[in-house]
Amino acid sequence: MDLQKLPVISTLSDHIDVVQHDQVKFLRITHPKLTAGISLYGGHVVSFKPTGFQDLIWMSDEAIYDAKLPLRGGIPICWPWFGPIASPSHGFVRNQQWQLVEHRENENGVVVCLGLQDNADTQVIWPYRFDAKLYVEMGETLKVTLDVKNTDEKPWTFSGALHSYLNVGDIHQLAITGMGDRYIDKLQDSKECEGPEVLKLTAGIDRIYTQPAAVINVSDPEFDRQLTIENQGHNSAVLWNPWANGAANIKDMSNSGYLTMMCVESTVFAPCISAGITLAPGESHQLITTIAQH
Questions:
Q1: Which of 81, 208, 232, 262 could form a disulfide with 288 if both were Cys (CB 3.0 to 4.6 A apart)?
Q2: Could you check whether the bond before residue 80 is cis, i.e. omega within 30 degrees of 0?
């Protein structure tokens, strides 16, 4: 899917159009400093490309845009839980239609805010009231903030992630630092492990790093750049790549898709629902990731 080639449904401002591919509507941002795309289905960033450079965000060539299945790639929002600790896996907000709350822009970039509140469908899955806002700040960097507020009369507990798929030149050449040396290995039945300070991939990875630095660095020689991922409001960082065997079993990813993507996720990890972050009525929490290239 090429966002720039999609026909315009409506124009919101000098820099923002609404476009549609299959059953999914997108905000298409075209600014002197960048181009970007945000799906209203799922509140899902699908592209962020500084002018003159490669996209920082990876989307699968086989992604399905039926407004039923989560999109493969981009920055899926996993909330109000992360992983398979409840159903559906990774929560339900990435399967919901978000609404545009506001947008503003100047010579430095564009800010978009999307919103989602509890509704009849979410109440069936998770019987709590909430107000979620997604702030996407686009300029020289991409900053994504998930702001969740408890609007119920009782406390509730959550986990979640901003499941960023980074676009990279060649997975074999990456060198990743800043993730820390302690991790839970999901490929070894959640075994607690220690690893090197510099990670170079030779096989699939699905790890929850429990002591990440404030900034994780991804050296990407093929694109001659270093990506930095700065996370806030998290307790861990998930690193994931399915490798060849995994990609072959993912219907909305090509067999070679794993070669050009790497997930580095800002994560509130909890092994079960009750072990997450608890918000009292009126309380809020922000989960943030800022992605930049150097």
A1: 232
A2: yes
